[in-house]
Write a structure and sequence with these properties.
- With 179 residues, the protein is an alpha+beta fold.
- It is built from 6 helices and 6 strands; from the N terminus they run αββαβαβαβαβα.
- Helix 3 links the parallel strand 3 and strand 4.
- The chain is elongated.
Length: 179
């Protein structure tokens, strides 16, 4: 099976419109597609991970002891309010009655982590990426945000004959999630 992979980045609504017009075969997103009968889209949960709060060695040294209580007033970098993870983090902070100082909000997760690497604040990221975050961003986990999860969805159009590569991706994700 020979295929050509083309990755396109864009706004959620724009990518769904391209998918609905059959200009794309698959959209990977941090949220499911809306349940609009006219679009004929299907969402498949393909990944879910717990979330830790990370910081540079200096922030870790000052704030990790007695986690999460030292987060009160601590500098925090967060995803933009439109990001699904943001609502979960906000709810977690409210549940623990914590009021950090939000020093930055980002729609781009790589930019958020880059500011975290610069020591501007703590930032949330998947628990499963601890090693990569330590190497790429020089950040250490302070603790886990219990009940907070990052999710990834594969969104496709309903077709009588699905694209074989899309079917393979969905089958592999289903196997991994059930393991």
């Amino acid at each position: 099976l020979s295929m050509r992979l083309e990755c396109v980045e864009g706004g959620f609504e724009h990518l769904l419109a391209e998918l609905a017009l059959n200009h794309l075969d698959l959209v990977l997103a941090d949220r499911p597609a809306p349940t609009d009968a006219h679009l004929k889209l299907q969402s498949h949960l393909i990944g879910k991970a717990g979330v830790d709060l990370y910081g540079t060695a200096d922030l870790h040294r000052r704030l990790a002891p007695d986690f999460p209580h030292r987060l009160e007033g601590a500098p925090l970098l967060l995803p933009a309010r439109s990001h699904p993870l943001r609502a979960d983090v906000d709810a977690w902070l409210q549940q623990h009655e914590l009021h950090p100082e939000i020093v930055g909000e980002f729609s781009d997760s790589a930019l958020l982590k880059t500011f975290g690497r610069g020591g501007y604040g703590l930032f949330p990221a998947p628990t499963e990426l601890r090693d990569e975050i330590a190497v790429q961003f020089g950040a250490l986990p302070l603790g886990t945000l219990e009940g907070v999860h990052e999710r990834w969805h594969a969104i496709v159009t309903r077709r009588k004959i699905p694209h074989p590569a899309v079917s393979a991706i969905l089958a592999a994700a289903a196997r991994k999630l059930s393991a």
